[in-house]
UniProtKB/TrEMBL annotation:
<feature type="binding site">
    <location>
        <position position="235"/>
    </location>
    <ligand>
        <name>substrate</name>
    </ligand>
</feature>
<feature type="binding site">
    <location>
        <position position="231"/>
    </location>
    <ligand>
        <name>S-adenosyl-L-methionine</name>
    </ligand>
</feature>
<dbReference type="GO" id="GO:0016279">
    <property type="term" value="F:protein-lysine N-methyltransferase activity"/>
</dbReference>
<keyword id="KW-0150">Chloroplast</keyword>
<feature type="binding site">
    <location>
        <position position="296"/>
    </location>
    <ligand>
        <name>substrate</name>
    </ligand>
</feature>
<comment type="similarity">
    <text>Belongs to the class V-like SAM-binding methyltransferase superfamily. Plant protein-lysine LSMT methyltransferase family.</text>
</comment>
<dbReference type="Pfam" id="PF09273">
    <property type="entry name" value="Rubis-subs-bind"/>
</dbReference>
<keyword id="KW-0949">S-adenosyl-L-methionine</keyword>
<dbReference type="Pfam" id="PF00856">
    <property type="entry name" value="SET"/>
</dbReference>
<dbReference type="InterPro" id="IPR011192">
    <property type="entry name" value="Rubisco_LSMT_MeTrfase_plant"/>
</dbReference>
<dbReference type="InterPro" id="IPR036464">
    <property type="entry name" value="Rubisco_LSMT_subst-bd_sf"/>
</dbReference>
<keyword id="KW-0934">Plastid</keyword>
<dbReference type="InterPro" id="IPR044431">
    <property type="entry name" value="SET_RBCMT"/>
</dbReference>
<dbReference type="InterPro" id="IPR050600">
    <property type="entry name" value="SETD3_SETD6_MTase"/>
</dbReference>
<dbReference type="InterPro" id="IPR001214">
    <property type="entry name" value="SET_dom"/>
</dbReference>
<keyword id="KW-0489">Methyltransferase</keyword>
<feature type="binding site">
    <location>
        <position position="263"/>
    </location>
    <ligand>
        <name>substrate</name>
    </ligand>
</feature>
Amino acid sequence: MEVTLFALSSSSSTFLSSPLKPKLKNLSSLTKRPTLHLSNKALPFRVTSLSVPQCDTSLPPAVQTFWQWLRDEGVVSAKTLAKPALVPEGMGLVAHRDIARNEVVLEVPKRLWINPDAVSASEIGNVCSGLKPWVSVALFLLREKSRDDSKWRLYFDILPESTNSTVFWSEEELDELQGTQLLSTTIGVKEYVQSEFQKVEQEIILPNKKFFPSPITLDDFFWAFGILRSRAFSRLRGQSLVLIPFADFINHSSSVTTEEHAWEIKGAAGLFSWDYLFTIRSPLSVKAGEQVYIQYDINKSNAELALDYGFIESKANRNAFTLTLQISESDPFYGDKLDIAESNGMGETADFDIFLDCSLPAQMIPYLRLVALGGTDAFLLESIFRNSVWGFLDLPVSHANEELICRVVRDACKSALSAYPTTLEEDEKLLESKLDPRLEIAVGIRAGEKKVLQHIDGIFKERELELDILEYYQERRLKDLGLSGELGDIIFWEK
């Protein structure tokens, strides 16, 4: 039986998937014309004047100029409820006035979005048509960034040169992640981005110098990747990947525990415009002068938050470890086990994300029991059991099978814990002091993974202590056939 403790995966197909699942509203009402009724009676309401949020003059000039651009484009108006400000996270949005829960904070029309549609409509649309969406948008970002006449010139001027995402860490900083799954994931992502750059450089950039007159380096490509990874929205109606100027100012907070109503696409923008709007609503009530927050993704682990955005949370259930189980090709029952796994939506390998203080994934124990099946338990792999064996694996199969999965998982946890250069106690001591932001992330990730490994080990240690009192398949079968007494003894019938 092989159990591999594996790195978090980042497949290219879901590589830039952004977190939130928007709740879209019924748009049919937007096509109806309003009916106006006039009378000479006094109006039953008082018209009040709403002021346009003013940008703080203490902010960097580039931000003030960007804000003026948003006003000129009609994005910022009296209806805009938040404005940029310097906050502990760097730059964020603060409430211009009191904001109610679920109230619209800002709206940005589609003509200012940066997405695959913007690429297709540009001069490089044809040469980028066969590329992955994120690669084409990355090239578009870099080309527009180099142009003085770009529509988004003032937006590019306020984008950061890097983030605290682990893809931007130095070798020395990455050394602090030794033993962690995040280190191997980060290295894998960097190799993937480098591979994509080498390919696009040879196939697109160099053969089309009229479109890319300014040299594009690997560092430039990483910058574009980092911007998209940390700022792009996706899984919106008809949008797989979209960068929204102004909307990406809004920061994440762990105090926001819902993803509902965070953002959506709606359209059209008005009676005389069929442009679509990207809308952000506040998930919480906010007082004037307070920062407006949203939840980036309630299901992401700290490792994913560090990789995507360059921060982690202190919440216990953000700490995770990915356990990868594998049916070995050297297993004499490999074919039968693989057939059963595939019949139940799984495969030769299976990844299970285990979070601190949370129960194990539902499919994990059955898969473990399947991988460990052998010896006298192998009869369950016969074809007559093929349609029912997965149900049998929900419960303990035999003492030997259960003992094996406990031993293998616990050994794997101990092996993983021994790979860290520090102990959990040393990490927790470090976290009590003021650390550089990146070192604080590294130590937090190390400590979190160790806690999860201890959590997993504790679960299977308790299971080991129960081996002698568990009811196994044979006993359950005899009981179902009426051949076992209340105390589990076998009943012999006299002739």
